[in-house]
Amino acid sequence: MIKIKSPEEIKKMRSAGKLAAEVLEYIEKYVVEGQNTAEIDRLCHEFIVSKGAIPAPLNYHGFPKSICTSVNNIVCHGIPSNKQILNNGDIVNVDVTVILDDYHGDTSRTYLIGDVKESTRLLVERSENAMMRGIQAIKPNSFLYEVGKAIEKYVNKFKYSIVRDYGGHGIGREFHEDPHVYHFYTPANRIRLRPGMIFTVEPMINEGGYEVVTSQTDGWTVTTKDNSLTAQFEHTVLVTEKGYEILTKL
Ligand code: MF3
Ligand code: CO
Ligand code: CO
């Protein structure tokens, strides 16, 4: 069941979204060469709690940290660790979800560490473009599959692949609500978009094949099967009467 949010709920989702965006802005200066990802987690945790909010990932289905940090070939759900040091040329996705006044805001960004190879910089830039193409396809009375279709159309220009095993999701009082948002065209997303629906758009784009593997050791870390680089951006988006509104913006 896809919930249509009330004007009061939309206000709260706007506040939660704005706070999540503020976390990504705040943390930027700490996402640098030599930093370890546990410290990035600690700083985000302190910032979120200081604003009277809760970091949603912490203890979510047993997840041990407050944010996800996914470096290089890690697709998503990377666990921050003091043993994971960011090196020159790395890329790292920081995925922040906050609960403010009972409502969730979910956003992520991929940061570049120092001097990154041109091909890597392009992967990151195009991953953000892919997310934006998907968001720009959101219109009331059109179908949700237009999001995936637009992402696929854009990504197919390059020798990249789109992760198929993870998608966007409805979001509100719950972290993950209906619908599942595919980042490629599928008739499974033949769902009519209506004003008041809120979901994330968060395509994971791989430099190699689309297959992914989940760590047998920690049960969370998802990597590309061929260990190719992967990048991701995420926004929480509201369907409006006119089109869409990005909620995870400053
Ligand atoms: N923030 C992720 C998403 O975009 C979900 C992380 S779940 C966790 O949906 F348990 F790994 F934190
Ligand atoms: Co999400
Ligand atoms: Co997220």
Q: What is the averaged pLDDT score?
A: 99
For the terminal residues, how far apart are their CA atoms? 30 Å
What Rg, in angstroms, do the CA atoms define?
17 Å
Q: How does the major sheet shape up? A: 4 strands, antiparallel
Q: Strand fraction band?
A: 25-35%
Please work out how many helical segments DSSP would assign.
4
Look up the CATH topology.
Answer: Creatine Amidinohydrolase
Q: What ligand molecules are bound, each kind once?
A: 2-amino-4-trifluoromethylsulfanyl-butyric acid, cobalt (II) ion
Architecture per CATH nomenclature, i.e. the level-2 architecture: Alpha-Beta Complex
List keywords for this structure.
single chain, 250 residues, alpha+beta, Creatine Amidinohydrolase, four-stranded antiparallel sheet, three-stranded antiparallel sheet, 4 helices, globular, binds 2-amino-4-trifluoromethylsulfanyl-butyric acid, binds cobalt (II) ion
